[in-house]
Structures are given as structure tokens and as C-alpha cells.
Amino acid sequence: MKKIITITVLGSILISTDTHAANFAVITSPPTILSIVIFLVALGCLYGVLKVLSLLKGGYLSKSWQLFMSSFIVLALSQVANLLNDFELLLVPSFLVPALLVVASGLLLIGIFETKQTLE
To answer: In the predicted model, what is the mean pLDDT of residues 59-77?
Structure first.
């Protein structure tokens, strides 16, 4: 009896949902493709930073590399928010993506200055 009720409930849920075709015009538009490429590059840079951090083991340059890591994380989050907005999965405020990009740029700049001060 439990099996029949479960199948009936799941069947009614599946029937009542709307299905939409993928919007290939949005997916293949140049800004969206560029956002995907930037997201993938940010993930690659994050992987490289994690490798360098594992080699530093808490040295003098570890603080600056942690700032680099946080800047790439914020950059990846900004691109995720941009892609969610482009694919219309989640509507984010219009100021969120540029604000995250400014924060990522600031963290990267602080990391560069921290490296410069450490190496002098």
C-alpha cells in the first residue's frame, strides 16, 4: 500500500511540473560564453593557488597567496551569479556581480602589495 501511495504522489508531482526547453540563444551568446570561460579560468587559477599554498606551508608569502586564493574564489562566485542570472535560474540584484568583481580586484591588488612588501 505504501508503494502505491508513494508512486501516486511522485507521479502527480512529476505530471504537475512545467517543462521548458533550453534557451540556446542565451547559452551560445558571446557574453555568456565569456562568463563560462572566465569561470573555468578562475577555477584553474584557484587550483594553482591551492598547489602553491600546499608547497609554502605557512611561510612569509602564505598571507599574500591566501589573498590571491580569496580573490579567485570571489571571482568564481561573481561568474556563478552572472551565469545564474543569464540562465534565469536565480535573479540576482544588478549591483551584485560588479560589486563582487570590485572585491575580487581589490583582494588581488592587496595580495600583490603584500607580496611586494614581503619581498622587499
So the answer is: 93
